[in-house]
Design goal:
Elements: H1 9-12, H2 15-19, E1 26-27, E2 34-36, E3 48-52, H3 59-66, E4 80-82, E5 88-92, E6 95-96, H4 107-126, E7 129-130, E8 139-141, H5 144-149, E9 158-160, E10 167-168
Antiparallel strand pairs: 1-2, 2-3, 3-5, 4-5, 6-8, 7-10, 8-9
Protein name: N/A
InterPro entries: Kinase-like_dom_sf, Prot_kinase_dom
GO molecular function: ATP binding; protein kinase activity
Length: about 170
Amino acid sequence: MPSSLDVPDWLKNHPELLARDIKLHMAIKPYGSLYYTPRPLGSYIPQYMVKVLDSVTEECSINERLQHSLSSPNHSLPCEIIRSEPHLLVMPFVGSLAFLEFKNRPTSFILDAYHQIIEGVEYLHRLQIAHLDICFDNVASASDYDAATDARLVEGKVYIVDFGQSRQLALG
């Protein structure tokens, strides 16, 4: 009997993922659309997340816009969009801020994390993008380990993820 965390066969055997040597392990959440690749403990091979994008959302076009300039104050995660049906979003794996250990950290560490979140949201708003789902699960941080496996990541940088509920607003 298949598990609710299993990767569907069509995604496991997707030619674009196979061409990139991306072998998905399981879903992040049951019945979800976000899957990840395994990485042996202590290994520095890149680890990825792949999200199956819903065509009725603006997530694809928003991520595409945000890839033009990934330096601060842009706090979106570097990604690649595979234009298949459905579209796939391929991102480096980073840990959720919800799993970050805040206990015994200096106040400056916590203030810096919140400052980066505010800076990222402010940047989105300047681009007329409303995230509409900012929460700890949708904010991630790159560890030194994450940054060592993907040159696009910056150690300690906070990234805003999951633009599935987001909207691009018209000027005016």
